[in-house]
User: Fold this.
Amino acid sequence: MPAPELTDVTLTVNGVQHEITVEPRRLLSDALRHDLGLTGTHVGCEHGVCGACTVLVDGKPTRACLMFAVAAQDYAITTVEGLTRPDGSLSPVQQAFKDCHGLQCGFCTPGFLTTVAAGIEENPDPTEDEARDMIAGNLCRCTGYQNIVASVLRAAELQAGESEESA
Amino acid sequence: MKPAPFGYRRPGSLAEALTAYADASDAKIGAGGQSLIPLLSMRLASVAELIDINGIEELSRITVSEDGVRFGATVRHSDLLAHEQVAAVQPMIPAALHHVAHATIRNRGTTVGSIVHADASGEMPTVFALLDGRLTVQSVRGTRELAAPELFIGPLETSLAADEIATEVFLPALAPRHGVAFDEIARRHGDYALVGVGAVVGLDADGAIASVRAGYVSVSEVPTVVDLGEPLVGHRGEITDDALRAAGELALSHLEPEADIHATAHYRAQLVRVLTGRVVRAAYDDAVARSNRSEGTPSNARS
Ligand SMILES: Cc1cc2nc3c(=O)[nH]c(=O)nc-3n(C[C@H](O)[C@H](O)[C@H](O)COP(=O)(O)OP(=O)(O)OC[C@H]3O[C@@H](n4cnc5c(N)ncnc54)[C@H](O)[C@@H]3O)c2cc1C
Ligand code: FES
Ligand code: FES
Assistant:
């Protein structure tokens, strides 16, 4: 069997450029976890259904398991690690999930955090129905979702409070 | 599961992509990857070379005119859904796109990719057929335009040749005195529909129903459009339940609801009846509302 083709890939993740050499079949989710050591991004189903691997691609929630690393070079990628403030403090979404018990085992949580971070940028004042719609593409086997919905609403509140303070 | 090894090309122009695709053997086009990558990862499909068209600038355009909407092969579902002029010219597009997968999948998946993936459980192949859309395909040998009957030849199967790239789709504008509606039943919003129905209803100058066509999702092997005019043409005012029931039965005579793990064939047939009535009525109401608005009703004229 011929040696697999390898290719140089430059990924911009959480504002930092990384050079890696991988096969074209390397999924973005695996590149983040195995090549960059950013294990905050979780992998559940690996076919787009569970949402655990969701990262932001140019700010938009995207499945990292449904992109090849080699095809992700033109974009700015944000993982759950990148949601945390530079001083290490929690972002409104992270704080809200902590406050409202929006997680139990935490497996699904990185995908929810990235999805909701982008969601409340787009809709800063969601209704409860809109909060449910925002997270409809993510699965959680533990919480029963009630506390996640509460976390979305709380995250929007925290974010609004912050932007008032800074205004 | 991981995909088997493959070679990767990311051409910067359409000409380069067409040559690469013509020269390669066992190559596939990668657009949004939202259907292809799961198939590769589960090893239900394999490919020697993946030609990624996302770097081709000229395929990312949306153009809207009064004739209709034209969009390139890398336009995402989310781009079309957010486009206000698209909604104004052909409201069926956002009505149906709203039901395609979850927002996260729509951010990456392309509408052209969805149409050429030709899944009869996808919303947009059916919308393409229902609206009499045209698909442009190109190869080093030339360009052709395909309508739904020529494109969809079997389950997940199109008439595209091994060297042809789908470059853009044209969907005509909604005609005057016409209305649309789309609805579906899914386990959760964003899941593939158990049954989905889109309808276009046209009125004559006196406001009576002149035409009714409906497209069906998840109840046939290929995207299927049924002419429901027979029991409905000539109706004015409230459409009777009897007429809508007849339309549902007429639709079923053209469809093949099948059982799978999500629903029995019997249940799917029932959903065809219920949704046909609901969607045809909503499309008729939409046609009436649009006609009134464009003709300027007395109440509009006063305000
Ligand atoms: C969890 C999940 C849920 C989903 N739910 C739905 C749903 O409810 N309804 C729905 O309709 N879809 C759904 N989808 C599929 C989604 O809409 C896909 O985006 C779409 O089917 C394919 O578009 P793509 O751009 O991702 O194509 P790709 O995956 O890149 O390609 C699909 C196929 O088309 C070929 N192809 C793509 N573009 C071209 C081209 N320009 N020329 C020639 N060949 C081409 C590819 O070679 C491949 O064979 C879902 C997907 C996921 C992962
Ligand atoms: S691991 Fe990507 S969606 Fe489940
Ligand atoms: S907290 Fe365990 S899966 Fe969501």
